[in-house]
């Protein structure tokens, strides 16, 4: 799931990756909104809020939303740099290590918040979540040849609409479109399910949700790292 790249990936592998990581992304996005009223995966919304508050001369508030975009950008850029460096060195496990790095950010965050509840400023928390989601989205985009984007809901809905329209075409068009519709539909459904799950878990368990997300990411990435070493 985190070893094969681009055209070497099967439909089943892409579906598994999209489902698992979209679920986690949706949960973390929901937590960001519950904490500070900010969507940590929605860069379109954050840019819109930045321009709106800037037009109202609420400069500090505007800059906070721009900061979330910057955090997402940094996460994506750092992931891309790490992946490119690993690929040049022939590291088949580099994509799995990048997902493990996401867990390595969430795990100490959860432990810190459990030990000292309320100690993390809201802006720091949502910025960190934007960073890890930018990292995750870059990894899934690069490993799948841009087929899987776990946080890019606007683009997924657009592609879903285009795909549904393509079903009205000939048999060949439908054959090419159906696998993509499965991928887009699963990604969207899992992101939404993650949002519901994240809201429920955060309201009941608080910072434990970060530990659960980290464990899920490690369960996904570590077997792939071991598999790459053994092959």
UniProtKB/TrEMBL annotation:
> Which species?
Roseivivax sediminis
For whether the record's keyword set contains Transmembrane, the answer is yes
Determine if rRNA-binding is one of this entry's keywords. no
Give the record's keywords alphabetically: Membrane, Transmembrane, Transmembrane helix
Q: Where are the transmembrane segments?
A: 12-39, 59-82, 94-114, 120-139, 183-202, 208-226
InterPro entries named among the record's database cross-references:
DUF1275
Protein name, UniProt field = Uncharacterized membrane protein YoaK, UPF0700 family
